[in-house]
Each structure stands twice: as C-alpha cells, then as structure tokens.
Amino acid sequence: MEATGSLSILVAMLAGLLSFLSPCTLPLFPSYLSFVAGVSYDELTGPAASPGMRRAVVANSLCFIGGFTLAFVALGLPFSYLGQALGKHQRLIAQVGGIFIIAMGLYVAGWLRIPFLMRYWKLEVKARPAGYLGAFLAGLTFAVGWIPCVGPILGSILTLASTVGKASTGLLMLLGYSLGLAIPFFLSALALNRFLTFFDRYKRFLPVVSTVSGLLMIAVGALLVTDYFTILNRAALQLTPAWLFQYL
Question: N or C: which end of the chain has fewer CB within 10 A?
Fold first, then answer.
C-alpha cells in the first residue's frame, strides 16, 4: 500500500464511529432499528420479545448495513477515481481538501455557521418492502437520508479519499467509514436494552463528542495542508505488518 493509505483507512473508520455517535444519529437509532425490523419500538424493547424476533432484527440489521455500505462506497467512486486521475496535482488537492476539512471541523465543533448545512432535510419513508431485500433497500434509502446529518464528516472522508492518489485505497476508506458506522450499529442491535441504558447515561456527553469530532477533523485538515499527513502515513505503514496490505 502507498504511504498515504493505512492511516487514511483508520481515520475513515474513526469517522464512521463518530458519525454513529453524533447527536443527529445516535438518538434516532432505536427508530431506525424498529423501521428496519418491521416491528414497533415496544415490541423491540419489551420482555415478550421472542428469540425469533431477535434473530430477525439481527438479520435485517445486517441487510440494512449492506445497503448503506453499498451506497457510501458508490458515493466514493467518483472521488477516488478523480483523485487518481489528477495524481500529478495531489499536493494541491491535499491543500484545498485540507482547508475544506478544517472548515467542516469548525462547523461540527459549533464554531462556524454554514447556513446550507444547517438546513433540515427530512426523508420520509412510511413503509418498506417486506423481508431482507426490503431491509437492504431501506439501507440504501437511509444512506441518502443520513447525508444531511453526517455530511460534514462524510464529506471530509470523501475529500480525503480524493487525496490518496489510488482509487482502490479511496474505496477502502469508504468501506472503512461504513465499517466504523456498521459495527456499533450491529452491536447495539444485538443488545438493544443495553444500548438504551448506555444512551441514557451517554446523551449528556453528545455536545462533547461534537467538539472532539470537530477538533479531530481540524487536526486532519491541518496535517493535509502542511503535508504532515503523508509523513504520519509513512510512519504508520512501517508499523503495519506487510502481509496485511500486500493485496491493496
């Protein structure tokens, strides 16, 4: 893998986790899960939930995850290939992209107002087709609906994907982002009642998470502008077992 790859993928996975923990995603998770499973919130959390229902929730969650993963990777295709096509201008792309990521970080941290991003876009889906295919299609649909919410973080990852100079690495970054979003989603679906207990304790820290997310984005942007991100990538590559990335 090129020096610009391994750390970028880890950053993308962290961005996916931060997207799940964001104030506009985490509080709505039970509603997402209820919709995906095709049962009411009370049925999901009630003591009468059968093992069969639990298995259905898990299976539908996996299909839902597959749907939004496909959507995010497809969204990253043009950015990844554009970055590869403009390989001779990677330094300029990194500098411009770094400035954009810094601006998004300031917005996420609450220190910069961007009216366009502050608009509320609502995607209403009253029903979905039954079965696993329906859950998969719901994942595709909700990925589009999530964009206004996770847009600043996702946009930063798309920008970062355009700076790595290799389309396959850019696509792996979008897979990493989806994985960072998917793992906590799936684990929370496995243990919904524990998630609700966790969220009740965690929700007061949501503003802190936004600030930390913004600071991390600002740091990544600054590293891109100064070209230190490439240096850190080289260091990360030296610490990574060669067999892990030999096919990338």
Answer: C
